[in-house]
Amino acid sequence: MELVSRPHVENFIQWAKDKPEVVVLSADLTNSCEVGQWRDTYPDRFFSMGMAEQNMMGVAAGMAREGLVPFIHTFAVFIYRRAYDQLAMSIAYPNLKVRFFGFLPGIVTPGGVTHQAIEDVAVMRAVPNMTVLETGDATEVETVLDAAHAVDGPCYVRFLRGEMPRLFPKSEPFEVGKARVLSTGSDVAILTAGITTEEAMRASSYLAAEGIGVRHLHVSTHKPFDDPQVLAALRECTAGVVTLENHLTTGGLGTAVSEMMTDNGIGKRLIRLGLNDTYAHGASLPYLLDEYDLDAKALVAAVGTLVGRELNVSDADIDAVRGEGAADSKAEAL
Amino acid sequence: MASNPQANDDWLARAERMAERMRVRGFDYVMRNGGGYLSQICSSAEIFSYLYLRGLHIGPSEAPMVPEPFAGNPGQANPDYENGGLYNGPRTADFDRFYFSPAHYALVLYVALIEAGRLGEEALEAFNTDGSKVELIGAEHSPGVESTTGSLGQALSQAIGVAMARRHKGESGNTWVMMSDGEFQEGQTWEAIQCASHYGLGNLAAIVDVNAQQCDGPMETVMTIEPLAQRIRAFGGEAVEIDGHDMAAMDNAYRNRAADRPLFILARTDPTRGVPLMNERKVLHYLRFSSEEEKARYAREFETMKAESQAWNS
Questions:
Q1: Do B160 and A47 touch (CB under 8 A)?
Q2: B188 has a chain A CB within 8 A of its CB
Q3: What is the pTM of this model?
Q4: What is the pLDDT of residues B50-87, one digit of tens each?
Q5: Which residues of B fall within a CB distance of 8 Å from A129?
Q6: Is the ipTM, as predicted for this complex, more than 0.90?
Q7: What are the residue ranges of helices labelled H in B169-279?
Q8: At residue B3, does pLDDT exceed 50?
Q9: Of A34, A115, B100, B227, which is the most buried if we count CB atoms within 10 A?
Q10: What is residue B54's DSSP assignment?
């Protein structure tokens, strides 16, 4: 598996070259959100807002009313926690074209509870007019720009930075509302988003070797959540559904799936893996994935529960049947 | 009215009559509504009169004299949404933008639009009635309302974004914000002044109704913001304190503003002006009658104001 380092840096500069309406707002996290070089390339389109996120939301709204398209770059927590009323009333209510690039989704950062956005999908999904996207690899980080730019309204993107895998070919860009079907079995549906897709892919060889037909879908659009491929997977997989999300199990992917099942009268078991009504803490990603049952082992065990088999495996068991030795992404640093 | 070299100018005489008529019309609708935001009309009539007759450089209204019924909120599913800012004319490069921050002053804005010829007086028949855009507090579908500001302290930041974008685009028009003093209790307001100062926004002017009243009562008993002018200056803004019923002073402050920093005109106002009966009350934010007897006294006060105004205007 290819590992890519900081794909956003150069890609965003190239992408914005012929888009004079695109401006960047940063709240003192410019290099941390990989737009330092962007600032130096387009100094007249970069606006430093300082550590003042509430004001930044209003400024973005005002700029959008005058035809600019602000791309806010900051840590996700400071978008939806610190400035919620402003993003809801100044930006989302009037359906303004502002893009929120929220960095450090879930537990990817050792920065601890203050920096870990664990309920952002829940909050943003609840905001009328908001489109909610999530990136899961380098290709999505690169191609979500076009997808977000085409949204006629506010758009929140859970964004990755630093070193990340390329799971999907560059020829298959981000498409709003369309999941990626990674396997086509019909025993158990597995739905993942963001970094949990890579983790779930670690388990796919093992599950295949166990003879379990998995339908694995990578979800990159949390809202709108109406993909017929997802609905088909929920309907067709006989043993049930597992969701694995880098987020609370409240309000995120697992909840969206349960809503879709309820709305469509799909009565089967759903196991939601994610942070279960808890904050996390500062530690490495592999450590936290293991601690909170967000890793491949936990996924295998959940699938086992659905098919009525006890699949208590170790990381070594899983890695032993993995085709290629994919190196895990480098742990995040602040 | 304070004496001033411009006091005999035509605009000022017209603006003074307009403010008087605004109080009468506003008081009338507060009585019809069985209560309402009366002190805000008393305090800010001159501010709105000044803005619409003199301060704002705006074109003719582009909206109907009587608004259509409420037709949904902004969103992708509602492409025909019409913004209340259409009452403030076209958004061209040279015209000013007007952001109205304390949304509970909506009735003051509506009566200002009527007196300025931008809204039909019959439009107020729908005030605070179900299905109407002429709402009690309102949002950006309401006449004259460019952005949704009922959550206080948000318009200044939006106006800063507008002013920054317009400077970025090389536009000559200014951006105005009408604010209430209570909004200076919000942290966001100070983030905003810090930002407008950092970016040297000489194309931004705020006029503040400093009536020293808020929902819980006199501001000095709730959370003091004074010394407001010094605080604004310390954050890098230009602050000019004036008698908030002296429109010539407003104009002087605006015409003589600094080019390199945002202007805050602190209009110190009397929230009982024209309705001395309100001096009996400790809390002025929203006039709610406690008895039929009290309502009758306000009704008599209104008849007195109306008669005086008619005598003055005839």
A1: no
A2: yes
A3: 0.95
A4: 999 999 999 999 999 999 999 999 999 999 999 999 99
A5: 74-76
A6: yes
A7: 187-198, 219-222, 228-234, 247-255
A8: no
A9: B100
A10: I
